[in-house]
Amino acid sequence: xxxxxxxxxxxxxxxxxxxxxxxxxxxxxxxxxxxxxxxxxxxxxxxxxxxxxxxxxxxxxxxxxxxxxxxxxxxxxxxxxxxxxxxxxxxxxxxxxxxxxxxxxxxxxxxxxxxxxxxxxxxxxxxxxxxxxxxxxxxxxxxxxxxxxxxxxxxxxxxxxxxxxxxxxxxxxxxxxxxxxxxxxxxxxxxxxxxxxxxxxxxxxxxxxxxxxxxxxxxxxxxxxxxxxxxxxxxxxxxxxxxxxxxxxxxxxxxxxxxxxxxxxxxxxxxxxxxxxxxxxxxxxxxxxxxxxxxxxxxxxxxxxxxx
Length: 308
Ligand code: SIN
Ligand code: FE
Description:
Elements: E1 4-6, H1 18-29, E2 33-36, E3 63-66, E4 71-73, H2 79-103, H3 105-108, E5 112-119, E6 151-158, E7 166-170, H4 174-181, H5 192-198, H6 208-222, H7 224-229, E8 233-237, E9 241-246, E10 252-256, E11 260-267, H8 279-287, H9 294-307
Parallel strand pairs: 1-2
Antiparallel strand pairs: 2-9, 3-4, 3-5, 5-11, 6-9, 6-11, 7-8, 7-10
Helix pairs in contact: 4-8
Bound molecules: succinic acid (SIN) and fe (iii) ion.
């Protein structure tokens, strides 16, 4: 199977024909990466100064922006420069939102916008512990942000000015990864959720779904043999292109590249055209039990309706 599904269009607010929208949803939920070979996030002349790793504060690997509060983190820039950097990242957030709204209208009503990031630092140069090392194949799951099964949809644009691609590896389908690692993962122990929330280690309720996703993320990254020998392919996303993927489902690793934008969206499972392909449904099927309370799913859904 070709891991990429090409979608034509050279504007973030392109009006897509209905058959293209259907093809996009099917491919995305089926575990493909939607690739937009002609869709560039073009920097304005005054934004080109930000093609510089010094935009980052040197501690955080990414400049991060919260579209709901307007807060910008991870940069050492101050004053007018900081305002202009913020405006550039906000402009990417709006572009990514427009793309999702026009291509995936069935998600649009209930999705919640997550963080935006700008990654001006070379991938290979990042020092990390293995859990933080995104050059190891993984599915996305974040210790401090439990999501009870809600999907993680990400839009990326490579803005490298020297024509360098963003090199990724793509691994096995989610169900194959899950089947391989589930027997090795420890079960959540009673009281863990309460403890995590009481100690402020998680921003919300860590469901059994979150426990297993995080354990899967760590087990994949921690297995050197698996990293080298599992079925995988390398993909280069050229400069001046855009791609979109459910990173909680698609096993991925970033191997090289510099200057990337990324926008995260949270999509409630109920919005999907094919619920059985969602990691929550796959894990529940394999383990034979519910992993997230319906009430927490509904609470997340209410939050996303309020935010839209
Ligand atoms: C990741 O999502 O794991 C990293 C993607 C990238 O920075 O290219
Ligand atoms: Fe990732």
